Amino acid sequence: MSIQAPSGGFTPGVAARLLLADGRRCFVKAASAAYGDWVPTAYRHEATVNAHLPPAVPAPRMWSHIDDGDWVCLIFDDVAGRFPSLSWDGEDLIRVLDSIERSVQALTPSPMKDAATVRDAFSAVLGGAWEQIEDGSALADADPWAAEHLSTLASLESHWADGVGGVTLLHLDLRRDNILLTPTEVVFVDWAWPAVGAPWLDLACFLPTVGAQMVRFDANAVFLSREVGRTAPPGAVDAFLVALAGYWRSNSLRPAPYYAPSLRMEQRLAADGAMRWLRTRLGG
């Protein structure tokens, strides 16, 4: 057996690509409560979700999972793919957008009858971030426009959950390092945070992370080029984007966790991408 550690990701624990003695390849991820209770909790959720994903969903097949009450280990097909290009050039972006649509179609209605709603699953992390930013000077340095319009952002954010209801099971953490491209497939990995909600939410979560790498990226035009974007209630999209940007911005101002020193930079860039999109939508 040989082991290769993959790059990417911000979750502490073990992640490895294995070549087994019989020639098969798999990907293994594992963590214990020593890394924080949230990590094995997320992995348990991921195991439950993967057991319900239909074949049409662009996700790796889970072979098995092991849970001894402390350590949780998940074993998947190994995907011999690459991350999308940093500049999202060529066909990379179109392929991913098409796969988001296929995922939405395959997961509407949700195959998990008892899956949490987006409102319930994210009520502890979304909402109130703009009001709770303590260091006004740090915000002014990071985002002068947000600092100037803080009361407007806080007001919009309070309505983030009003329009997120729906029956689609969503990934909700789609970004470049959770996507693998092969010559023929697009694969979404790390299904640790899915919840049920409106079909436009995965697209809304994903596009700011593209805008994080491309300053001139027109996220709104891309959003409206897709049916789920065109049919999404504009006010609901605005409120959700404000809350998402607030989550990223407020976290980016905090010290980085020991296990992910680059996390705050990624959150800062994602907040930048979300705010550029918001300013377009809000006429700013």
Descriptive overview:
With 284 residues, this protein is of the alpha+beta class. It is 40% helix and 14% strand. It is built from twelve helices and nine strands. The protein has a five-stranded antiparallel β-sheet with strand order 1-2-3-5-4, covered by helices on one side. Strands 6-9 form a two-stranded antiparallel ribbon. A two-stranded antiparallel ribbon has the order 7-8. The protein starts with a strand and ends with a helix. The model has no long low-confidence stretch (mean pLDDT 92).
Structural class: alpha+beta
| Largest beta sheet: strand ordering | 1-2-3-5-4
What overall form do the CA principal axes indicate?
Answer: globular
**Poorly predicted regions:** none
Q: Roughly what percent helix? A: 40-55%
- Helix tally equals 12
What share of residues are in beta strands? 5-15%
Overall mean pLDDT:
92
Largest sheet, described in full? 5 strands, antiparallel
What is Rg? Answer: 19 Å
How many strands in all? 9
Helix-strand pattern, N to C? EEEHEEHHHHHHEEEEHHHHH
Distance between the terminal alpha carbons, to the nearest Å? 56 Å
Gist of the model:
Helix content is about 40%, strand content about 15%.
How are the SSEs ordered, and which strands pair?
Elements: E1 2-4, E2 14-19, E3 25-31, H1 38-50, E4 62-67, E5 72-77, H2 92-106, H3 118-121, H4 129-132, H5 136-142, H6 144-148, H7 150-157, E6 168-170, E7 179-181, E8 186-188, E9 195-197, H8 201-211, H9 219-224, H10 227-230, H11 234-252, H12 263-281
Antiparallel strand pairs: 1-2, 2-3, 3-5, 4-5, 6-9, 7-8
Helix pairs in contact: 7-11, 8-12, 11-12
